[in-house]
Each structure stands twice: as C-alpha cells, then as structure tokens.
C-alpha cells in the first residue's frame, strides 16, 4: 500500500453552473514527482489552488499527509512550498530583501536559507537589482526560490517552467529531479506539454475538462506505448537463433523462456510464425503492440491530443 | 514625596518586566510546542520535516541546530538509498541485457547439440556462439566497472604521470583497429611533456571507451585526436566525422543506460559514456561533447596540469 501525501476524493469546484473540476481523485505518492497533464483550462490550476486552500472546493475532500486539509490549513500549509501564478513581491525591493520578508513571516530552517534558495535557482545573493527591473525569467526564478526556501516536504508547482529560456528549463528540470531523488521530496507539477511531463514525472494524471482521465506511472505508460510484436512460444533460444539467421534481426528482447518481443515492426508476423513452426517450435500467441505515448494521449483525450 | 515616586516607579517597572517575561515565556513555550510536534514527526521517520523559525526568535539557533542534525542524517539515508537504487538497476540490466544475448547463444549451441546442423554450418554456429560469448563477457566487464564506480568501490590511484606519452601509448594499440575499420586517423600530440595527476588505468579506460564508442556507434571514416595545453589544463579533443548526435540526445549521452538509438537491442551497454563521465570526474577532469548531426561529434577532455 503506497503512502499518499495528497489524496483527493470526488473533489469538485463549480463556478456558477460550470464545473471547473469534476469529481477528481488524484493520488500523489511520497517521494515521487506527480505530473498533472492537461490543456489550458483543463482545471489544473483550480485543483492546485484547492490543494493550497486558496479557494474552497464546492464538494469533495482533500487529504494531505493523511489529514483533511479543512481545519488543518495552518499546520499543513507551512510544510508545503508552492508556486502558483505570480506571488506578490514588492517591486521596490531587491530579490534578497523580498525573500527576507517572507523568511521573517514564515520562518526558515537555517541561517543561510535565503542564500541557498537563490543559489539553487541561479540568482545572485544580495544583488542590488530591484524586483521591478527583473526579467520574466528572473521573476519566475525568484518565485521558485520562495517556494523552496523553507525546505518543504511537498512542492506544488503550477507550470514552473513558464517564462524560462531553454537553459533555464533544463536547470529547473534537473533541480526538481534532484529534490526528489536526493532529498526525497514529493512534488506535484502541472504542465500542458507532454514532452515536459514525460521527461520529469514518475506518475502522470491526465486531466481534461476538469475530469481525471487516467492516472498511471510513467513506466507503465511507456510500457503500454512501447512498439513491439510479442510472441509466446515453446523455446525462446531457438526463436532467437531463427530471427538472427533467417530474418537478420537482432532487435528483440527475451523476457523469459517462453516470451519474446521483436522491436522491428517491419517484419511480417505471419512470416515469423511460419519460420518458428517450421523449426519445430510451438507458437501459442503473437500480437502486435503499437501506440506511441502521444497516440495514447490523443485517444484518451478524445482525439484532440495535448500540444 | 520623592521617595513615593521612586517606590511607585519601581513597582511599575517590576510589573512591566514581569509582564514582559510572561509574554516571552509564552512565546517560547509556543515555539517549543511547535518544535516538539515536528520532532515527533521526525522520530516517526519523516526526515524531510524542518523546524521553521524567523532568525530573530529566541529559539531560532536551537531550531537551526536541530535541523542541521536532521539534514545530515537524512543525507546518509539518501546515499544508502542511492546504493540500493544502483543495485536494483544492476539487477534489471542483468535480467534484460544479459538474458537476451545469453539465450540467443544457447539457441545456437542447442541446435549444434541436437544435431540440427552439420558440417560447415555447424562450424559457423560454433563460431557465432563463441563470438556471442565474448560480447557477453565484454558487456559484463563493463557492467561491473559501472557498478563498482557507482558503489564507490572503484579505487583510483592518483599519480602524477606524463599525459603525452601515456596517450601515445594508448593510441598505438588502436591504430591497427582503425586500419581494420578503414578509418583515416590523425593524431596530433606534441613532443613536450604534460604532467597530470590521474589514475593510469582510469585514464586508459576513458580513452578506450571513447574510441570504441566512436568505432561502434559514430559510423565515421575519420578520427582525429589532438592534445594541447590550454590555460592550466591539458585539453584533449576526439573528433569524428560520423553521423553525429541529435541535440536532444546530446544532453543525455553521459547518463547511465542512455542509448541514442531507441531500439534497445543495438549492440552496446549504454554504460560506456557514463563510465567515462564518472571516471573523469573522479580524476578531477571534465568531459563534454559537441555535435552537429550529419557532420560529426567532438568529445573534449580536460585535466588540470599537476604543479
């Protein structure tokens, strides 16, 4: 039984009659990166706002660290770092001064927390530049610094790579990965970019029109979308020899004594079956699996896909 | 009159200080309660929890100290977890990447054993099996190198050696192999000595892995190896005119088990460059790669000169 840091039950948010989030059940496991994938307006930000107590759910329940968020906001939220839209920084103060204000208000785990956070996102400590003079990318970096400054156990980051250049994106991606792998943090991120999520997340929740379409680990999804022809037959050693000699094929993997996958879809399945049978093998099953991750998302979101 | 004033004043002052003391005690008490709650969580195994305190608070130094202790223990747990992860990956590699070639090899030997083939064909089968056995051994050698590097069991003996001569000696053994593969080679190593502090065996492995990577994956017909001094470093370039590496792949080539060719059965362990990277890092050097698809790739090695 995995340990869930965030668990929602039938979480719903209505604006008037419009359901922005509908009966959402997501499960974020400890020490993993959970990617919430969906197109613009799918309900990602609303979900995150509800998780952070910024807006009240219409119905449903949120459990964080196994406890209902409602009524435990103060204790729970101090353990979370978040980046959601843009935080209110003072334009007439420097980045360091802005963080110092938050450090005094919220408390920090050590004396060098501000410096560490700025280092992590690649901004200079005690720089003279005012926040109003920051570029979009720098503002985003400062917002991330604020999210990690108190060394929280759980990070909720809404589209963290918005406004960053390609190098910045790679940097942010690698330190998010590092926070998870080396420090055991639990991270919930959202994105509308499939490739971004598939590079970073361990688990993926696909959300469309406020509803969760699928929730699965990336490893399972990749397995699902790995293109191959699967054979179940009596002797994989002989089958491998036949593939090499008759089909000049070496792109296959042997799973066990009876199961084998051929990765080259260009070879006709019937030809392979005939060759196996002629060589005295019993073939009990053969099927083709071909669907790319993108095809899968397209199918699951009803043909529109996720850009 | 004057006496009365003094008495009243001292009473007021006493009252104020008692009140102030109560306020401070109250605040500290609240902070201690907060600390206790966090520590209870840590005791139950949550090493990610931190005590938050603003730096001006009385209890802040205490809180920061406790946090530091928690972090240092957490670091040790993390390194243990990483070792565990390495072990798991070794197991996966063994089950996937050893099983396929080994089962195929058995396929040939069984065919010989059962008398499926005779005469010249039998000889061919035996030769194929022998070759496969050698490939498999080479793969396992690489796998264990990588495993040792990752569990820090790889002992490097750092000595001051002369790089130009050492490099020349390594390359001499490769010249017949370049010729066998009909590759043109240019080697430019100056006569003057360059002293660097490296592990000789590690240095050789770095070269051997890089060159064999070029031979088996780059599809190049020309290789150029130059050594020169740059600032306080020795800079070694390994340039080929092969197929090059796509930008997206280039970022990952030094990662473990990364293969540019997505079909997993392409010969090679996916560990060679990861070993290069780790060895170079352990010898205080740097390795980077630049590439232009269709034109070729250059690997750049830098080692600091010994004083």
Structure description:
The complex is a heterodimer of chains A (about 300) and B (about 300). Chain A is an alpha/beta fold and about 300 residues long. The model of chain A has no long low-confidence stretch (mean pLDDT about 85). Chain A is elongated. The longest helix of chain A is centred in the middle third of the chain and has 18 residues, at about 165-185. The two termini of chain A are about 35 Å apart. In chain A, the strands form three sheets. Chain A has a six-stranded mixed β-sheet with strand order 7-8-9-4-10-11, sandwiched between helices. Chain A has helices at about 45-50, 75, 95-105, 115-120, 135-150, 165-185, 195-200, 220-225, 235-245, 270-280, 295-300; strands at about 5-15, 20-25, 25-30, 35, 60-65, 65-70, 80-85, 155-160, 185-190, 205-210, 210-215, 230-235, 250-255, 260, 285-290. Chain B folds into three domains: about 1-75, no CATH class; about 85-150, Helix Hairpins; about 160-305, Heat Shock Protein 90. Chain B has helices spanning about 1-45, 60-115, 120-150, 165-180, 200-220, 245-250, 270-280, and strands at about 160, 185-190, 195-200, 220-230, 235-240, 285-290, 295-305. In chain B, a hairpin with a 3-residue loop joins strand 6 (about 285-290) and strand 7 (about 295-305). Chain B starts with a helix and ends with a strand. Chain B has seven helices and seven strands. Chain B is α+β, with helices and mostly antiparallel strands. The interface of A and B includes residues 104, 106, 170, 183 and 236 of A.
The description of the largest β-sheet of chain A is: 6 strands, mixed
User: Numbering strands along the chain, what is their spatial order in the largest sheet of chain A?
Assistant: 7-8-9-4-10-11
SS field, number of helical segments of chain B: 7
User: What is the domain total for the residues of chain A?
Assistant: 2
Quote the beta fraction of chain B: 5-15%
Order of adjacent strands in the largest pleated sheet of chain B: 2-4-5-7-6
Distance between the termini of chain B: 84 Å
Give the overall silhouette of chain A. Answer: elongated
CATH topology value of the largest domain in chain B: Heat Shock Protein 90
Sketch the topology of chain B as an H/E string, one letter per element. HHHEHEEHEEHHEE
Assign an overall shape of chain B.
elongated
The description of the largest β-sheet of chain B is: 5 strands, mixed
> What is the helix content of chain A?
25-40%
Q: Encode the helix/strand succession of chain A as letters.
A: EEEEHEEHEHHHEHEHEEHEHEEHEH
- Count of alpha/pi helices of chain A: 11
């Amino acid at each position: 039984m995995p340990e869930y840091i965030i668990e929602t039950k039938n979480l719903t948010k209505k604006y008037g009659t419009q359901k922005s989030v509908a009966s959402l059940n997501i499960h974020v496991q400890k020490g993993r990166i959970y990617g919430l994938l969906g197109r613009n307006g799918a309900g990602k930000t609303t979900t995150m706002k509800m998780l952070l107590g910024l807006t009240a759910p219409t119905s449903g329940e949120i459990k964080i660290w196994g406890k209902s968020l409602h009524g435990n906001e103060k204790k729970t939220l101090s353990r979370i770092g978040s980046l959601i839209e843009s935080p209110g920084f003072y334009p007439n103060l420097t980045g360091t001064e802005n963080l110092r204000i938050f450090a005094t208000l919220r408390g920090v785990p050590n004396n060098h927390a501000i410096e560490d956070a700025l280092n992590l996102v690649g901004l200079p400590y005690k720089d003279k530049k005012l926040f109003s003079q920051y570029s979009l990318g720098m503002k985003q970096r400062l917002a991330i610094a604020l999210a990690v400054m108190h060394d929280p156990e759980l990070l909720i980051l809404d589209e963290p790579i918005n406004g960053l250049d390609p190098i910045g994106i790679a940097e942010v991606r690698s330190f998010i990965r590092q926070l998870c792998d080396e420090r055991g943090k639990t991270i919930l991120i959202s994105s509308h970019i499939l490739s971004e999520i598939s590079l970073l997340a361990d688990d993926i929740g696909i959300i469309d029109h406020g509803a969760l379409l699928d929730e699965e680990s990336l490893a399972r999804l990749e397995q699902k979308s790995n293109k191959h022809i699967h054979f179940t037959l009596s002797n994989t050693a002989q089958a491998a020899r036949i593939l090499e000699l008759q089909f000049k094929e070496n792109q296959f993997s042997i799973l066990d004594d009876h199961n084998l996958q051929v990765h080259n879809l260009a070879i006709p399945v019937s030809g392979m079956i005939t060759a196996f049978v002629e060589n005295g093998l019993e073939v009990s099953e053969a099927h083709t699996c071909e669907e790319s991750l993108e095809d899968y998302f397209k199918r699951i979101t009803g043909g529109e896909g996720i850009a | 009159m004057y006496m009365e004033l003094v008495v009243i004043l001292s009473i007021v002052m006493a009252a104020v200080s008692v009140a102030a003391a109560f306020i401070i005690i109250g605040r500290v008490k609240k902070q201690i309660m907060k600390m206790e709650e966090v520590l209870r969580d840590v005791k139950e195994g949550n090493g990610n929890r931190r005590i938050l305190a603003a730096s001006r608070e009385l209890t802040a130094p205490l809180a920061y100290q406790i946090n530091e202790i928690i972090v240092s223990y957490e670091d040790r747990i993390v390194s243990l977890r990483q070792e565990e992860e390495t072990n798991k990956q070794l197991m996966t590699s063994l089950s996937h990447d050893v099983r396929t070639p080994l089962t195929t090899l058995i396929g040939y030997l069984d065919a010989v054993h059962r008398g499926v083939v005779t005469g010249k064909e039998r000889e061919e089968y035996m030769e194929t099996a022998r070759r496969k056995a050698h490939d498999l051994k080479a793969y396992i050698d690489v796998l264990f190198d990588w495993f040792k590097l990752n569990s820090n069991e790889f002992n490097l003996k750092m000595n001051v050696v002369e790089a130009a001569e050492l490099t020349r000696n390594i390359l001499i053994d490769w010249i017949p192999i370049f010729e066998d593969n009909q590759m043109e080679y240019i080697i430019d190593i100056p006569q003057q000595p360059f002293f660097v502090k490296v592990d000789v065996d590690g240095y050789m492995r770095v070269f051997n892995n890089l060159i064999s990577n070029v031979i088996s994956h780059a599809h190049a017909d020309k290789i150029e190896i130059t050594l020169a001094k740059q600032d306080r470093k020795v800079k070694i370039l390994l340039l080929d005119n092969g197929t090059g590496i796509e930008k997206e792949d280039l970022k990952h080539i030094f990662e473990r088990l990364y293969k540019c060719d997505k079909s997993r059965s392409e010969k090679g362990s996916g560990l060679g460059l990861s070993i290069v990277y780790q060895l170079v890092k352990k010898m205080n050097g740097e390795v980077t790669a630049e590439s232009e698809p269709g034109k070729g790739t250059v690997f750049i090695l830098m080692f600091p000169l010994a004083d």
